[in-house]
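Ticket #4471: structure export looks truncated?
Reporter: QA, pipeline team
Priority: medium

Steps to reproduce: submit the single chain below to the structure queue and open the exported record.
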Amino acid sequence: MDRVITAAAGAASPGPPLHLLVVEDEVEAARHMASSLAAEGYRVDVVGDGLEALSAASAQTFDVMIVDRLLPGLDGLSLLRALRTRGVGTPTLFLTALGTVADRVAGLEGGADDYLVKPFAFDELHARVKALSRRTADPRQGATRLQCGDLVMDRLAREVRRGDRAVELLPLEYRLLEVLLLNAGQPVTRMMLLEQVWGFHFDPRTNIVETHISRMRAKLENAGGPPLIRTRRGAGYVIGPEAASATA
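Actual output as written to the record:
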């Protein structure tokens, strides 16, 4: 599919329109999506090939990317991994027919920020893009280094250190810590973690969050220093200076 550039054509915004990259190989689906997003006031670029998307996203800055998993040239998961390796941290939504729990987990562990399964409602797509675009305005979202006290996360190397000691985290533990650090000093609810780490938009009524938080806490505390993560009853989990006053 030839590259299509769609200028923002809808709601006016106080500043320049946010720039989106849609990576979708189904021509009609891509056109409908671009038209819908442009009507919301976005500037939209559309590409239909993973390799072309890799080139486009590496050469210029986008505010949000919407990526299909099943693409010619380079599949969506490989595309996103390659971009993250290059240091491209653009907030990314996987929009795909691959909708099992294993698919969602693979997508989020592969670097996606959100996951939406086809068929979808355009209202929900707009809401998710808007939520992701807010992250672009927060300098922490694009930061390659996140820190809380003596705890440092290198997002390019995907390494975590506490003081002079490396902390070995499993992929889901790493993502949990990343979400907490991106919201340092603020409570992160259990539902937010389920959505941003596991891609669940419902409560599975399991202790999956509590189990992973407990294991991650133990690893961070074994590396030395005082506890950094606390549970704030009725609000969620907090990391940072304000955590000291939270209830364990």
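Status: closed, not a bug. The export was complete when the record was re-opened. Leaving a note from the reviewer for reference: The mean pLDDT is 83.
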